Amino acid sequence: MTTPSRLQVVVQEIIDETQDIRSFDLRAADGQSLPAFDAGAHVDVYAPGGYVRQYSLCNDPTETGRYVIAVKREPNGRGGSAAMHGSVKAGDLLEISAPRNHFALEPGSAPVLLVGGGIGMTPLMAMVETLLARGIDFDLALFVRGRAFLPFAERLGRPQLASHMRLHFDDADEPEKIDLAQLLGEVDGRHLYLCGPDGFMKAVRSHSAHWPTDQVHVEHFAASREEASEGEIRQFAVILAQSGKELVVPADKSILDVLRVHGIEVPTSCEEGVCGTCVTNYSDGEPDHRDFCLSPRERKNKLALCCSRAFSSSLRIDL
Ligand code: FES
């Protein structure tokens, strides 16, 4: 794994938002301001035990002095969330990457529908602040297991959010349920921003299949192999634009693997198409995109080297 540039932060405060979600208030270790970010951005967090995980920034992007992330403890996870919950204390130093954003709000003033499932609400929390500041019409629909599982209760309880927000509790009776067909029935020029667990995303995607693709913006937590691609896995070639070199990518290797074998280092983090660290421009060929971070528009000239393959016999990449 190649390391992108890192920032040192100190954990200023940890808040138990719910029984299994903690928020972490991170400040620059040198006391300076942190790099600016836009709503939808995430950082890689280098957690104790060697885990690297991506967490969305959920505070107001106008706050230049801190990043706030929220971490749900996943008892059956791969260890990253357990390390964040079990080993990180207030006052600890952590390393993180600079913010990256593959889930940014579109420019303009089109109305917005934000739909979040569980911990998937985190990037939407930053979006809410930006939309309020810009005076853009928006609705926020949050789906959680029950009222006790709703994080950020104080922020969500602000009076200025009351007319924008709808809550769905799995364990409640009507009217504390949201009908997805009704919520997503009318497009009305709106942009949909969606983040949540796989099953929830699938349900929302199936009810929003009639939405124009460039008005649907999705953020995945982790790679879902099932959704990645139906394309056949076969050999293809990458042509390096700067040198003209042609490298063969066998069916059992990624572009990234082949670049490494040839001594070409590319910054990476998740290596499963989620974080966007390895995204690179291409100019020729038809990629079989297997990432979870690029929008349809970005996919026209960018691909993720860690997971993308090719429908064409070759791809010309900007390296
Ligand atoms: S390294 Fe994360 S998308 Fe490729």
Describe it:
It is a single chain. This protein is an alpha/beta fold and 319 residues long. The protein folds into 3 domains: 6-97, Translation factors (Elongation Factor Tu (Ef-tu), domain 3, Beta Barrel); 112-219, Nucleotide-binding domain of ferredoxin-NADP reductase (FNR) module (Rossmann fold); 228-317, Roll (Ubiquitin-like (UB roll)), CATH 3.10.20.30. Helices cover 16% and strands 30% of the residues. It is built from 7 helices and 18 strands. The protein has helices spanning 80-87, 122-134, 153-156, 180-185, 198-207, 225-228, 255-261; strands at 6-16, 21-28, 42-47, 51-56, 67-72, 93-97, 112-117, 138-144, 165-169, 191-195, 216-219, 236-240, 246-249, 279-284, 287-288, 302-304, 309-310, 314-317. The strands form 4 sheets. A 6-stranded antiparallel β-sheet has the order 4-3-6-1-2-5. It has a 5-stranded parallel β-sheet with strand order 9-8-7-10-11, with helices on both faces. A 5-stranded mixed β-sheet has the order 13-12-18-14-16, covered by helices on one side. Helix 5 (198-207) links the parallel strand 10 (191-195) and strand 11. The longest helix is centred in the middle third of the chain and has 13 residues, at 122-134. The protein is globular and about 60 Å long. The two termini are 18 Å apart. The mean pLDDT is 91. Bound molecules: FE2/S2 (inorganic) cluster (FES).
